[in-house]
Design brief:
Helix content is about 60%, strand content about 0%. The chain is mainly alpha-helical and about 90 residues long.
Length: about 90
């Protein structure tokens, strides 16, 4: 039997999905912890917001009403034409 030195080996390496399973367990643990601790966190943020902390106010409003859109619609359609307005003025004179 020949000894294999490097290269691809059958059954070697980390099994597929291991990292995803570990992350899922971590998310589940965090969700459980936040469920029990979220009340005091919000109470502290409200206290900080009342004391003038802008970051606490932003955090609370983002959680309560959602974050505002980052984009703005800049397409403005004019209600009237300046050229047409000038022509109307000339007719009146």
């Amino acid at each position: 039997m020949e000894i294999q030195r490097g290269g691809k080996r059958i059954g070697a390496g980390r099994k597929k999905g291991v990292a995803a399973l570990e992350h899922e367990k971590a998310r589940e643990l965090l969700a459980l912890k936040l469920f029990t601790e979220f009340g005091p966190i919000v109470d502290k943020a409200i206290e900080q917001a009342k004391n003038g902390d802008p970051e606490a106010r932003k955090w609370l409003s983002d959680r309560a009403w959602g974050r505002p859109k980052d984009t703005m619609d800049m397409t403005i359609k004019p209600v009237f034409s300046l050229k047409a307005l000038a022509q109307e003025r000339e007719k009146v004179r």
